[in-house]
């Protein structure tokens, strides 16, 4: 049975549990009794979330940090989009066209390897830039775009 099939089977099993059985499952999963006011559907959803985290991994530390900041009322900027290997980024700067190949291990421009887009932006402009911003990956390209 695959991880997805196991999760689906667990969801089905949770759907057939009464409140007492859900409370026992909650105590086993979270090492504490659930609050009395929780609805059965909420307990099912929390339990299946717990199973999914165990099977596939939980939230990344970046997402946890962003959620905590948002809960505290702070404005949270979305992260730069992930760039898949094989993608080519093109940027024109001061009349010259630059092409960057995204690789599994980093980035390549003019046959030279770079670990980050910011290092490439520094190479091109001579000043420190956010690489994703310079290449327009967060909706705003740097100057000269």
Name the shape in a single word.
elongated
Strand residue percentage: 5-15%
State the assembly state of the protein chains. Answer: single chain
How far from one another are the termini?
Answer: 51 Å
Description:
The chain is built from 6 helices and 4 strands; from the N terminus they run H-H-H-H-E-E-E-E-H-H. It is of the alpha+beta class. The longest helix has 17 residues. It is elongated and about 70 Å long. The mean pLDDT is 89.
In short:
It is built from 6 helices and 4 strands, in the order H-H-H-H-E-E-E-E-H-H.
List the helices and strands and how they pair.
Elements: H1 3-15, H2 19-30, H3 40-56, H4 61-71, E1 88-93, E2 96-103, E3 106-109, E4 112-114, H5 117-125, H6 131-134
Antiparallel strand pairs: 1-2, 2-3, 3-4
Helix pairs in contact: 1-3, 2-3
Note the main attributes of this structure.
single chain; 145 residues; alpha+beta; 2 domains; four-stranded antiparallel sheet
């Amino acid at each position: 049975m695959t991880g997805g099939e196991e999760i689906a089977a667990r969801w089905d099993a949770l759907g057939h549990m009464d409140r007492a059985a859900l409370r026992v499952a909650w105590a086993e999963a979270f090492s504490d009794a659930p609050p009395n006011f929780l609805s059965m559907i909420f307990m099912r959803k929390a339990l299946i979330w717990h199973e999914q985290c165990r099977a596939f991994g939980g939230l990344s530390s970046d997402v946890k940090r962003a959620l905590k900041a948002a809960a505290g009322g702070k404005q949270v900027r979305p992260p730069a989009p992930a760039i898949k290997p094989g993608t080519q980024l093109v940027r024109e700067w001061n009349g010259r066209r630059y092409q960057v190949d995204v690789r599994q291990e980093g980035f390549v421009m003019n046959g030279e390897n770079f670990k980050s887009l910011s290092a490439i932006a520094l190479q091109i402009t001579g000043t420190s830039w956010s690489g994703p911003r310079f290449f327009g990956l967060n909706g705003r390209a740097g100057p000269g775009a």
